[in-house]
Specification:
This protein has 445 residues and is α+β, with helices and mostly antiparallel strands. It is 24% helix and 32% strand. It contains nine helices and 22 strands. The strands form five sheets. The chain has a seven-stranded mixed β-sheet with strand order 9-8-7-10-11-12-13. β17, α6 and β18 form a beta-alpha-beta unit. α1 runs parallel beside α9 and α2 packs antiparallel against α3. It is globular and about 65 Å long. It starts with a strand and ends with a strand.
Amino acid sequence: MQKRRIDVLCDALDDFGRGIVRVDGKAVFVPDLLPGERATIETVFSFGKMKECRLLSRKNDSPDRVKPSCPYYPRCGGCQLMHLSYPAQLLFKKRKVEHLLRKFAKVDIQAEPTCGLEEPMRYRNKVQKPIRKVRGKICAGFYKTGTHDLVNVVDCLAETELSAKITNEVLYLMRKFHYVPYDEDEETGDVRHLLIKVSSVYDEALVTLVVLDSNLPGGRAFAQELMAKIPEVKGVVFNVNSRKTNVILGEKDVPVFGATRIRDRIFDKDFYISTHSFYQTNPLQIERLYKTAIDLSGAGKDDVVLDAYCGTGTIGLSIADRVKEVLGVEIVPEAVEDAKENARMNNVQNARFLCKDCTEYLQSGKRKFDIVIMDPPRKGSTPEFLSALRKIRPRRIVYVSCDPATLARDVSLLKEDYLVEKVVPVDMFPNSLHVETVCALSLKK
C-alpha cells in the first residue's frame, strides 16, 4: 500500500459535493473541500489504484465556506452541504441539474435559478429514524454516510421542534415499557424505526413505530401515555416489518390508538396523510413546487390531465380547478384511498383515482390525455412507461423529479418527440445534495 502527500487546488465540486482536484492530470475527489481552497491531501494506492483520498489540512477558506450550525455535522449522514453557504448551495444545485441533463440526456439548457427558502432549517414534516442501542442506551438518530453506524441525534435541525420532542418522549416510553431496540446482526428486538409525520397547518402529528411483531405488551397504554404527554400526537400505528431488509416500512399497519392519519393543507385544499402515503416532506416549498408544475403545464379548462404516480392526489387535486378532468394513477392502495378521500373532503368532482401500475395502465391505451404530470419515485420512471407515453402523444409533459440523474435518463428517451422547454430546480432538501426539479416538455410539431 503506497501513500503520497500532495498540495492541491480545488477548482470545482462534483455532483456529490466533493471538491475536484487534479493529481497527475487526473481528477481526484476530496470531501470537505470547496472551489478556490488549497489543501494538502494524502492519496492511498493499492495495486496501482487509488483506494482512498484524505484531506490532511486546508491552507485557506473559500468565501462560500460557513461554520455548520449542527453539532452532529458531518458525522451524521443526513446533510452533506452544511459547510457551504446557502446561496452557494442553490447555485450548486442549479449547475448539478444542468450538468446531469447534458451528461445523460445530451440536452444543453440553462436551468432557472434554484427556488430556495428564506430559512433553510426546521423544514421537514416527516422524519424516519433508526432505533438502536448505542453503548447500552436506547437511541434514535441517523446513520453515518455509507454505514449502519448510528449517530445519536437528540435534536436534528432539519426536523421540527415538535418532531424532536416526540422522539425524546418515545425513547423515554420505550425504556419505561421495556421495548428493545432492533439488533441488525442478531435480527432481534422490538422496535426498528420511528416514523413521525407532522402537519404544517394543523396541530397534528402521526407516530408510527416499525416493529417486528405488532403484539407488543402494553401497546395501547404506550400510545395513550404518549398522546397524553404530547396532545399534538393524534394517533399511534405499529407497522410490521420482520424481513431482513433495508426497506423501512413493512406492508402491514396495525392501528394502536387514536387516528391513523392527519391533515395538512395545500393552497385551499386539505389532504390526509397516513403512514404509507407519499407527501412532500417540505411544506414550506410544496405550494411553490406545485404552482411551478401547474403553471408550466399550460393547462386550460378543456384539458384532460393524467396525474401519474399520483400518491395521495396532491398535484391532481391542486390542478383540478383549472381543467376538465383529472385521472390519478398510483400503485400503493393506501395512497389511492387517501386520494379518493381527499377528493371527497374537498368536494372535487372532476378527479378520479385508480390503484394500478402506471406503466401497465398507460400500455393499455384506454385513454388519451392532453397533459401528463408525472412525479415518479427516486428511481425514476420505466422505459415501458415512457414508450407508452410517446404513443399517446400528450401535448405537454411535466416531469417532477427528486433525482436529476434519473430525470436526465428518462428525458433522453423522450427527447426524440418532445422538446425540453424549461427546467426549474426547487430546493426541497436544504443542506443536502438532493434537489427537486420540474421539467416541462412540449410535443414537437
